[in-house]
Specification:
Length: 119
């Protein structure tokens, strides 16, 4: 007797954190002002994306993202960001990095914000 075993390929579902550009560039901003911007986080994976938390290297960056935010597969979330610019006596280049921890393949996803403060 011949027994034939057939195994179905099981593809593991994965979430994928994706932004079109991980760099926000402001060429000339005024110290003491607040700038509002937004961008989409996409889940290009096949499983629900969960964003557990986020941190930024500067308290000047406020992100409207609830801990535990979930994004369904092939869906997106509009992330709103406020950048409070410090006042400087002279033009100064600044760089802020925000890190998002999620269940995607790349556990830590980064967004970089660069700006130059003008007099």
């Amino acid at each position: 007797m011949i027994t034939i075993l057939t195994f179905a390929a099981c593809e593991k579902k994965k979430a994928n954190f994706y932004v079109k550009s991980n760099l926000l560039q402001y060429d000339s901003v005024v110290g003491g002002k607040t700038y509002d911007t937004s961008f989409y986080i996409y889940n290009t994976g096949t499983d629900t994306l969960s964003i557990f938390n986020h941190t930024c290297t500067c308290e000047c960056t406020l992100i409207d993202l609830p801990d535990g935010q979930k994004i369904n597969p092939k869906d997106s979330f509009l992330l709103k960001l406020k950048l409070n610019i410090d006042s400087y006596g002279s033009a100064k280049d600044k760089k802020v990095q925000c890190t998002f921890k999620s269940n995607s393949d790349s556990i830590f996803n980064r967004l970089e914000i660069r700006y130059t403060v003008k007099k």
